[in-house]
Amino acid sequence: PLEADLDGLQFGEVDQAELKRLFDFLEFRTLYDRLQEALNTLQQVPVAPVDAEPLDPLVTIIETPADAAALLHSLAAGGPEPVSLAGGWESAREKLPLEGIALVTDRERGEVAWIGAELLDVAEVTAAVAALVGPGGRPVSGHGLKGLMRSLLGRGIDVTTLALDTRIAAYLLDPAESRYLLAELLPRYTRFELATDEASARGQLDFEGTAGQAIAHKAAAEALAAAHLADALTDALDAQGLSKLNAEVEVPLVRVLAHMERMGVQVDRAELERLNREMATEANTLTKQIWEAAGREFNVNSTLQLRQVLYDELGLVPQKKTKTGYSTDAASLEKLAGQHEVIDHLLRYREVEKLRSTYGDGLLGEVADDGRIHATFNQTVARTGRLSSEEPNLHNIPVRSEMGRAFRRCFVAAPGYELLIADYNQIELRCIAHLADDPGLVEAFTERRDIHNATASRVFGVEPSAVTIEQRSKAKMVSYGLAYGMEAYGLGQRLNIPTDEAVQILEAYFTAFPAVRDYMDRTVIEARKKGYTETLMGRRRYIPELTSSNFRIRQAGERQAMNAGIQGLAADIFKVSLVDLDRALEAQRARSRVVLQVHDEVILEVPPEEHNLAAELVPRIMAEAFPLDVPLEVNLSFGPTWAAAKG
Q: Of the chain's two ends, which shows fewer C-beta atoms within 10 Å, N or C?
């Protein structure tokens, strides 16, 4: 029986605005277009799509310090709603001098005030900004505010009231995006779009156009766009259970990273220059050795010339063919190692030249006038939640080669300080033990055994005292490989063993630790059902590859699903520890400061009188960041340089 008649099943009216809002929220952009075609067919009358309304701010330029201070004090005395801010820069590079700030004074009417940098430098205005955004001030929001916060620190203004960063909120909602531009987010979540014609600006701006006016209008549009995005993104965070992660971890971390970037890390420029010269000399020597071994001079950086020398003239057997010819990449050359002396010289040359160009010249170019490198740390790049580094990428400084490790000698403590290096010991493996709840792994970590020795003992069926170095190395590779979704083929490549042997080792591992396999299988099944994985703190990672018709793409999706929870939990723990550590140092009124973060390491500058305080506080805070079924252990070391501390 149906509780409906045919008349009640007639096609009704379509709420286009609500339809677009829903599809934008679900990111069904292609489906929205297809649905419009279907609706037009069903209704026999074209359904007009909802056009976004151009967001055109009404900009008021504040001209005197008194007016600026009055406006800021008025905003500070306002209600509990966040004030939306945006910084103005001459270009997209936020390391350039700040040109001013835009503040939304009335969101519904689109009114935005612009305070130029010349006013920000006036004492009464600086104090008024600090009262607005500092302790006891009004909540603030904006899009990608870390750059503005870092710049304001240079004026003695510490933004402590950040309530929402719309770029980070958008990242949490979908970490797979490559960029989080206001122009793309605004029409997706609201009825607005950024006006493309900056000359349409209203109000006191006379767009006959100086660069300063264009900067003011761009910043005003960004502040207003973030203000309109805030409610929609807040609702979306609530709906997906991400509000706590955003408010307690990601938002407080913005300020921590702003302080780190502002502080930077001290560099021994003379040592860096000496190392650069040393590598340049070795690269020249290696080039001559390559020429001598090849029997003639040629451009060693030319793939075409190198291919001709290796395969046509010297008769070496090619290992791999690409669309343009036989490959001369590192993997191909490594397989030719030992067949001709030119290969060994080439491999060494490439290592030295890459280090010289990337880290020798690269790092020298990033040393600021204060003798420190001020890298940028990103919260919205890695899908797993990990932080990344750029300008320069300090996360990629190599540590496996001796010359690579030599670069760590160039990172030093500031005068009157020493470096403290604290890093989590095997955090991914501890996350695996906790998530899988495997008794064998939990017991080994709880009893503080050598985890790789304990793993090898169980995998290879020998007593711990009988485990060989080779067996321990293989067990270590399996353990870390699982954290990154490595399968038998990848394990075989890493260990330089046949894939069949790698399969046997993996099977032995899962036999020894069956709960780990159960966790991996369960994670993939759940991710396939939901479309995403979720960490214990609620961080989501969407994996559309799991539904691909292509087997290899599906396999890649399964590997992503297996490691997302592990990597995501490790990332969450590290972020919590950074936030907690910063708060603890502030509570102690300590002079010690965090200057660098690299993977699972945090590096602080510590004055001698706080050595004991830091030695007790740092590992305790980091170990208590998140309750696991196994202890979180932190390695601690001090030294005048990064290299000396790490040993």
A: N
- CA distances (Å), 379 to each of 19, 174, 250, 251, 571, in order? 32, 13, 8, 10, 11
State whether the Cα torsion 336-337-343-348 is positive or negative.
positive
Side chain identity, residue 467: V
Q: Quick one: three-class SS letters along 221-284?
A: HHHHHHHHHHHHHHHHHHHCCCHHHHHHHHHHHHHHHHHHHHHCEEECHHHHHHHHHHHHHHHH
Per-residue CA distances from 436 to 93, 314, 331, 429, 638 (Å): 44, 53, 35, 10, 35
Contact 397, 404 (CB under 8 A): yes
- pLDDT greater than 70 at residue 392: yes
Which residues is 104 bridged to in the sheet? 112
* pLDDT tens string 448-506: 888 888 888 888 888 988 888 888 888 888 887 876 777 777 777 777 778 888 888 88
**Tokens (6 digits) for 388:** 């990344």
Three-state DSSP string of 201-218: CEECCCCCCCHHHHHHHH
User: Which strands, in side-by-side order, build the sheet including 418-424?
Assistant: 593-598, 601-606, 418-424, 634-639
The b-or-e profile of 346-379 (16+ CB within 10 A means b, else e) is bbbbbbbbbbbebbbeebbebbeeeebbbbbbeb
